[in-house]
Design brief:
476 residues; mainly beta; Methylamine Dehydrogenase, Chain H; six-stranded antiparallel beta sheet; five-stranded antiparallel beta sheet; 33 strands; binds fe (ii) ion; dioxygenase
Amino acid sequence: MSPQAQSHFDPTRVPHLLGSFAPVTDEVDVVELSVVGRIPPSLDGLYVRNGPNPRFTPIGSYLYPIDGDGMLHGVWLSEGRARYRNRFVRTPGLVAEERAGRALWGGLESFILPGPDAVGPELANDFKDLPDINVVSHAGRLLALAESACPFRMGDGLETVGREDFGGALPVGITAHPKIDPVSGEMVVFCYMTEAPYLTWSVIDPTGAVPRKATPIEGVDEPMMIHDMALTKRFVILVLAPVFIDLEAAMSGGSFLSWRPERGTRVALIPRDGGKLRWASDEAFWLWHTVNAYDDGPDGDGEVVLEYVQWSRLTVGGDPASYSADPVRSNLVRARIDPATGSMVRTELDDSRVEFPRVDDRRIGRKHRLVALATEIGDVDLLPGEYNALRWYDTQTDTARIWHAGDLSVGEPVFAPEPGDHSDERGYWLTFATDRTDGTSWFLIIPAEDPTAGPVARVRIPVRVPLGLHGAWLPN
Ligand SMILES: [Fe+2]
């Protein structure tokens, strides 16, 4: 965003601050939610979701989905009943803004940083924490996650405990999309940064200790943005799309993200045992989110299979002049990568416009069957990042099932398995939804066995839940 554009920044015209995306300011508790249908009594736990929700009207710029304060929305289910609570992730920057009664930091592309007179010496002239993207539970800690920065630890009541650096072992932070190995219980993370070594990976064990400290990834000699990762039994997988962080351009009024398709996209296969890094490369594509990955072959020592939602180009920030004229596409794609030769073959699995892919988390790093996605159907005027249907792609039959949500805009579907069942077909898909006609919000419980039938329960949330990003099901 140019300085001229900044001076004309008008938050009332930013689509992601309006309609179903408009932030809310109240923190509420509702103990008995009304339900249309029946909440399965076997669902006992917390569904929690994060998303950008600026506490005060943004100044300077607003770069969705990265900018904005984090807000957690929780729905606790027990014995067929539901309660709701939402809380801001109260970072030191947000606390300072609440004291001032207004935004003090500008959006990411405006470089408005308050000085010591406004916020004290510790926060002055630095960026604000933005733990607004994801929420996971690991080592008994509920973490609100930012884009490659320290997460914030949250309490059982969604109150903010403080910045989490894992006993000082990971002071620079971690990705917003860590992957937890369902067998070992390890949480594998990466972190990109604007200074050398630019990209590292680490392992946080089930106790919260860090047996692998930040390990530089060789062959990365400039700052890049990488949003998500994947894991197999053998490899950590990072997709390095040609999105470079250009601080010089940002300081002189340009965007800090630069899309350079001529550089192509590289995939790093990082052996989890510490072995030699392998690379594959192909023509440029961008991805926000992986679906999952696994090691193929009879002994799990063959090709690496990576599924992800492939975007034809960067879709945030950047210089629009560097975009091709083609409309942006986002499709479910499978890449087969030979670790021995570095060859990569990509196949489009489904031509629907999709995002927010999730599998049963118990399948992470192993072959999965179902991929749940948010999608768009019909001739409806939806904003970028807004979806009106859910889609389930079956990797065994190469078929898809769909549930059209009508006037509801739906978010990322998260799987809650039926307790005691180990297939990814028995359980429920959970998401928030907001009605575009009247702004009412709902928590939806959709049966995995027949998702096309729609929710078995629509739980009314008596306040609006803005469309957001990623969530988790945390069974008791
Ligand atoms: Fe994400």
